[in-house]
Amino acid sequence: MPENKLFLPILLGTNRKGRQSENVAKWLFGKMNEREDVETKFFDVRDFKLPQDDYGTAIGKDFPEWRDAIIKADGLVVVAPEYNHAYPGSMKSVLDLLLKEYIHKAVALVGVSASPWGGTRVVEACVPMVRELGLAVTFRDLNFPQVQNKFDESGNLLDEKYDKFVVDFLDELVWMSGALRWGRENLPSKHHE
What we know:
two-stranded parallel sheet
């Protein structure tokens, strides 16, 4: 295990029944676990019991496992299904639990869609939102168009070109996460105590 292993949690961004993006997130989680330079943890918005009468950083303390993971994290992967050209509200609610904990960390976005567009519109919608949280978006996205045709009934990926795509996607996330970690540890910033 390399000493400089990066901690990169993954967030599955929908609680919808029959969600196709679960196959994507589980496959990607497996690929991340195969790497020597990455440690990861799987988070699912379905597991967050969000109150109906409060919101945002005011309730972040009520989700210590998420808070502690993001404090420790060097970056984050968000699997974002596209709903009506945007991201699910449940995903936004989980991300909004924290703020300063994200600053100067990398985020890699995975767009998932039943349409041929492959979630490009949800990735575009996510960029200004995650930027406002203080996250730095990677250059490479991972897109799953017509996701309903990409996996078999057991959740196995059917399209082998993704084996190359995921290497490039994770290499970029690792590079950015490492560079930003170095910056947080070595360069003064008013955002870090």
